[in-house]
Amino acid sequence: MMSIPRISYKYISILIISLSAMVYAPAVHAQPNTTSVDTTSDVKVKKIDTSGRQLCVGIDLFHPVINHFVGSRSGQEVAVDYYTKNEFYLVMEGGAGSSHVDYSNLQYTTTNSFFRFGFNKSLLTRSGPKDWDIMFFGLRGAGSIINRSAASYTIIDSVWGNYPGTLAQGKPFAAIWAELVAGMRVELAKRFFVGWTVRGKFMMNGKSFSNLSPLYIEGYGEGDKNAVFDFNVYATYSFRWQRKVIGKVADKANTK
Amino acid sequence: MIKKVKFLPVLLLTGYSLVWCSCTQQRATCLTPTIASLSIEFMHLPIDTSTVFVDTALPAAVLIPVTRRAAVDSFPQQSVLTISLSSDTTFCQWLFKPDTTTKTFDTISFYYQRNLQFLSNACGFAYFYTLDSVHTTHFSYQNYNVVYSIDSAHITNASVTNDVNTTYQLQVYIHPDY
Fold first, then answer.
1. CA A132: distance to chain centroid?
2. Distance between CA atoms of A147 and A96, rounded to whole angstroms?
3. Is A11 part of any domain?
4. B101 in a domain, yes or no?
5. Distance CA B22, CA A8 (A)
6. Is the residue at A38 inside a domain?
7. Does B34 touch chain A (CB under 8 A)?
8. Cβ contacts of A213 on chain B, cutoff 8 Å
9. What is the pLDDT of residues A223-251, one digit of tens each?
10. Rounded to a whole number, what is the distance in Å from the CA of B34 to chain A's nearest CA?
11. Most C-beta atoms within 10 A of its C-beta, which of A92, A135, A215, B177?
12. How many structural domains are present in chain B?
């Protein structure tokens, strides 16, 4: 039986430190050039975003491949992000999946659907309005509703003999977690992107389902761990608009 | 724009590495004891007039669970022995003699409550117990035909779990004449 690798806190620390470095890197400057300050005008020149709008719809390719090899679980995930301004993207992700535990001492099945909401902030400077490649970090809040089938277990005891038992089907329960994400996305063909995202995930209510933690929660990972590491590879298609209107505004701003 | 020629191999290599890593992992190993253990400390008075109990290093204690499996556990010389309780009832008995040469078995009877506990997906479930009472056969001068070794037993910690740091749950006082 195979599973997603167990990632220690060391890797989560590396992720957090890397993200911190990326966040603070743009804030590091050389000494300010005081000679360029214009003291004659108090009017701030509003920066015009000439890049228009973009809505991206993507599917995760990584987990279906992994699930194919693992065999005991399945799941699909889609991601939608919308460019707002200042290199911020609103992100919604969702999906559903199932896993089946068939160990010698434990058997049960779980199904779940999940939803994530958050943002990505691109760290790259655009080379032009048509440049939509991004390297980003972001945050997510996520939730999932999990259903568990009746479970069968066997307590292995060499002295008194093995003792089998069952747990009745559980009521649907919720899992809530937060994610730190980082990744990149490259436009390989016109409007077609491929990119990856690494995720550090932190379960917020793990104790609430400790009577039988799901082995695998699609969208989160191993349900009996409070912190996990995950990875996605997305194939994404983008829809774009408003470029001409914004372009005219930009032209007007330049002529003034 | 990102230089695609530069980043695409990195993208593919990262993806391939993670797929490979994921697929070489096996089921997580259970590193937690799955059977709750009950530790018994054996003590005795060095002499009849003594007031201080000392640990009893039993020379070769024998403990036999009263079960259809009839497994025999013989322990080397030590004063703390570890046994388990039956998962399918709230009562179980162990036969005990402090040495293999001792002719008569004592009986230790445990009455307890069971609490089903989920350990992890790798380890499954286990029962933890709360001891209600412990009864033993007793040494008696009135009946010299049957000579028991145990004088009395005292529960020091009623909680029986898989916590390996728990010292002992039961003190058993052995008669000095054993």
1. 19
2. 12
3. no
4. yes
5. 14
6. no
7. yes
8. 118, 120-121
9. 888 999 998 999 999 998 875 555 555 55
10. 8
11. A215
12. 1
Q: Which two tokens stand for residue A134?
A: 């991004």
- Is the ipTM beyond the 0.90 threshold? no
Backbone region of residue A126 per phi and psi (left: phi > 0; alpha: psi in -120 to 50; beta: other values): beta
Higher pLDDT, B96 or B145: B96
Mutate to test the interface with B, among A62, A72, A159 (most CBs of B within 10 A): A159
Give the model confidence (pLDDT) of B4-47 as tens digits.
Answer: 555 666 666 666 666 665 555 557 788 889 999 999 988 887 77
Burial of B169 (0-12, 13-18, 19+ CB in 10 A): buried
What pLDDT is stored for residue B17 in this prediction? 63
Does residue B19 lie within any of the structural domains? no
The CATH number of residue A211's host domain is 2.40.160.20
pTM (two decimals): 0.72
**Which residue of chain B comes nearest to A230, CA vs CA?**
B18
Q: Indicate whether B126 belongs to any domain.
A: yes
Instruction: Judge: A160–B4 Cβ closer than 8 Å, yes or no.
Output: no
Domain-embedded: residue B108: yes
The total number of structural domains that make up chain A: 1
Tokens 């991601």 label which residue? A79
Q: Is residue A152 part of a domain?
A: yes
Q: Distances in Å between the alpha carbon of A205 and those of A91, A176, B94?
A: 23, 6, 42
The answer to whether position A150 is within a domain reads: yes
Domain encompassing residue A100 = 52-255
- Residue B124 and residue A70: Cα distance in Å, rounded? 20
Share the mean pLDDT of chain B: 80
